[in-house]
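User: Sequence in, structure out. Go.
Assistant: Echoing your sequence, followed by the structure tokens.
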Amino acid sequence: MPERYDDRPDRARGVARRRVLGIGGALGLMAATGLSASAALARRPSFTGAELRSAVPLPPPFQVPLPIPSVLAPAGTSGGVDRYEITQREATAEILPGVRTPLWTYEGTFPGPTIESRRGRPITVTHRNELPVPTVVHLHGGRTPAASDGYPTDLVLPEGRHDAATHTGHGSTHDMHDPRAVVTKLTRDYTFPLDQRPALLWYHDHRMDFTAPAIWRGLAGLHIVRDDAEDNLGLPAGRRELPLMLTDRAFAADGTLAYPALDPTLRERPGVRDPYLAGVLGDVILVNGAPWPVHEVDAARYRLRILNASNARHYELEVVTDDGRRLDLVQIGADQGLLATPVTHRLLPLAPAERHDVVIDFSGVPVGGRVRLVNRLGSGRTRDVMAFRIARKATDDSRIPRILSTDLPTWRRSDAVRVRDFSFRTGRMRGDHGWLIDGLPFDPARSDVTTRLGDIEVWRLIADVHHPVHLHLVGFRILSRGGGPPLPHDAGLKDTVSLRPGESAEIITRFDGYRGRYLFHCHNAEHEDMGMMANLEII
């Protein structure tokens, strides 16, 4: 049987965790007293950021059917390589019923089309940029050669744009030039070997200084890697496997997506207005681009592959029937694929960019009954996420094996050739507010960390407020939090670790795969745009 964790002790702290962080006072405290003050904050905020309020009437929850993103067909499959073509273009969609919303999209849809691939079979994706700004594509969670990883200055310029690797950095007048940038016009081929464990990945824009508003406008899509071993486990599959991309947005009076950008054209000056420096939250929860949707299900097990693609919003997921019963969330996978064994939760935290692969059993809910997926960190409308309506009895031959995977790495602390320390905290840069790693804002021309291909390292990370820290190229294991053991949801191989306010964590990884220049950064997208990113050179 899966190991059970009943998170009921957390309930007593629920009210405190749901208080909104007063970011102005908190940042002042950090600036004055540094990390020593952050422990006091850890008991207070439930998220980092400020919420935008929509100026259009919002629909009631659980009325809009859950959309399932279409799976992109390859343009060619010869020579052992699958080739895909994606056009980045402006489109208009009806996200809220009766309201037309302009978007930036991959192939005209939000989310973009899902790519499904097989472990070890390489693919090439040709992206064509028909948007009014430069773009970059990053396959989040991919073991990708540096040339295709989506470094923030490796731009694809639209027609008529000739600016290359010079940027106005972080709201200042200081130009950052990256001599190593590889810039193309109109199109770029991204090659993904996919020599990695089966997992739910996602692709999104990664342009320097403008990642947050580009994702907010719609530039995100799913990528699923599969293999025969996982296919043969007997997990829920077909229409009982649901990809769920969670995002939050807010809508202006004219139906456009509200976002507090300093430059709404997203061409020159990056950054957001002062109240939103800690992160932008919306008051509408979208699942696969639909507001608070509902999905009809059989009275059977379902596999939910959940991605938090929100810029800054954290979730604490709970599954509740209309008569108040809580259903188990049986976690079978994390960011980088299957766990060794299942772990059962009642509450499951999910930070920006994290993925959880869970199974929910609806067989005990009567036909006609409703089950809600709720966010215990939300309040008002943002407490609801989506609902499931039990439509029919059904046979179910799926199972959750006691052993899910035997190929997880077994790195030990004693294997590490070095230990590094990094602080993630607010600070000043060039006279403006910023988010810094070890006191420095991102600079593409600076080398921050250099390691040798194949080295195993332990990294010790410490945060002032919430920081979901993401490493490119590699997965890692979480060794400890605050000097104690990892949390139940830390199981498996990760590529993003959610640091809570005032918290330290240790991770261990092996820098294998490819040589080249990669990144690590906070995946609160506003923090990332305001400097919280660093270079990782593998030699």
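User: And one key feature?
Assistant: Residues 1-45, 165-174 have pLDDT under 50 and may be disordered.
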